[in-house]
Fold this protein.
Amino acid sequence: MYEFLTGPALWLTFIIFFGGVVWRAVWYVRGLDWQMDRVAYGYHNDLAIKGALKSILHWLLPFGSRCWRLKPGFYLLFFTFHIGLLLVPVFLIAHNVILQERFGISLWTFSPRVADVLSIAMLVSAVFIVLRRIALPEVRILTTFYDYLLILISTAPFITGLLCRFQVGGDYHFWLLAHIITGEIWLIAVPFTKLSHAILFFMSRAQLGMDYGIKRGGKYGRGLAW
Amino acid sequence: MPEGVFCNKTPVSTEEGLLALLGDKGGRQYYDEMSRLEVNKEALKATLDKTCKSRFRTWLEICAHCGLCADSCFLYLVNDRDPEQVPSFKIQSTLGEMVRRKGDVDNAFMLRTMEIAWSKCTCCNRCGMYCPHGIDMGIMFGYLRGLCFSQGFVPWELKIGSGMHRIYKAQMNVTTEDWVGTCEWMAEEQQDEWPGLEIPVDLEDADLMYTCNAREPKHYPEDIAEVAILFHITGEKWTVPSEGWEQTCLTLFAGDWPACKAQTENVYAAIERLRPKRVVGTECGHAHRCTVVEGPYWAGRRDGLPPAPYLHYTEWVAEALRTGKIKIDPAKRIKEPVTYQDSCNYIRNYGLSEIVREIMGYLVEPGYFVEMWPNKEHNYCCGGGGGFNGVGMYRKQRNKALLTKRDQILATGCKLVVSPCHNCWDAIRDLEEEYEIGIRWSFLKPLLIKMAIIPEHLLPKEEEEEE
């Protein structure tokens, strides 16, 4: 089972994940329409590139946008959640050991202790994100079952990963398999669900940045203002 | 009932039809017919398939339902944080639902959608600046209005507005003769005070061509006189076109896409016919958005630019002050607390925030200019944008919306508001009528004429003799 999950199933997962993400990006760009979108794609490239980069960077940098500065509490939850979500799977020593065994390559890794802290922080922030959904009327009205399902899909690999690491109940093997399966489900879900924002966040932000850069104030050095 | 006499899927394009619709006071029969108007689901699906592309579909899909857009929307805030006013909810429950159902929606759905599209969003685009994913719900509401219009679900006044543009190529029934006659009349009227003042019509190869808002010839002809006076003072070689002078486009508010295209092309034809070096539009944010910001796309201009450089009035004013073409008498500068209403259309959506502050620097004695908060690109809509001012059925909601601007103005402590945008100007006038907070409001033109130092050679001879 372990061999299958980390062999053919993993390959298939990566193919679906990377292929799906590329397909989403290509589909997005192919569907852009200069006249419907009212953005002169391909013209005023200096303004377009500057607008796109600013639009992305200001939302990635800590408190880089006015919205984040107005909502510092949610900002911290949101960033803690995403930093854990993105860094732990890539730089976890256990994952890199597998990479080394299979492909003879390995990335820089952080200590298991750091991974523990990031994972637990990520899960704690997820709990607060859920509580926020329930508590605030303006978020509750938007929330559907689908939103909770996606949080579950995204956090399940971390929950099972921690249970595996600390061998809760003494059943290391069970949690390991659960961890691999939930991890693969998570990756496969990305292209097919709104987790596709992993790539579409960048596309959408770049597009709006180009809109502002090309026609909504970019030439005056204004536009999307932070 | 499939199609009503007044409320139907066919835009008004004859004078008789328009007069008949106008005769239906307050749209009583129109709205009664609308309550039974059927939805052409196949046509709606076909339009969605053709026009709802990856950008909108992505925006609708990846919305994280985080609710960060809530506080960005002044209508959410002013309506006691009603969750149904959260921008994401408003668009997901209308356009989002329509797309998910592939156009399979009924009359009740369309009636509710129309109400949300025209009374719960002014297309100010502020929410787009506060969404982590860069989802601009104002743009989607503009698109949704187009879908509603194509199915006949549009407020009565905007169906009329669309008809006006289709028939008169103006938002009001101002014909070419009316327009040219008004220009001649205004030029004549000024001769005593401004000898030699002209309003040249159809002058080819001028330095500037001026375009305006139909309400100027229709209701405020002195605005045209003020334009002429300021061009007279600065010695511009300028002109107005006899055709293509109307810069606004109520069809944009109404969602009448074909008429948006025709309206823009009419202005661009004038530019191509008269070949001015530059074009200057009036102090109207909506007009600027229609003709300069979005117009090139309606007209199919691939580079997104109008046929000639096209300035908003504030850009021309700033340039005239900067280059000394208009000199302000320091003794006449504003010496009372004064604030500025940043128009969504040319500030947030066109980037002129610093240019208008440069103007205020010339007009206001240092220390008297007070910023609203929030301001510049983050300013709230006046409360009457996107057609909200003009729809009688939503007057109550509009008046509630005005409270945001009222409170912003009150917080500045100013009694004077400079508002170079017709829509904002109207909203501020209406909020004063409604809430009586004792403020005055003004366009730039009358302020400039009052404060400018008039060159000796332009003064009337009699006045010189008297002196």
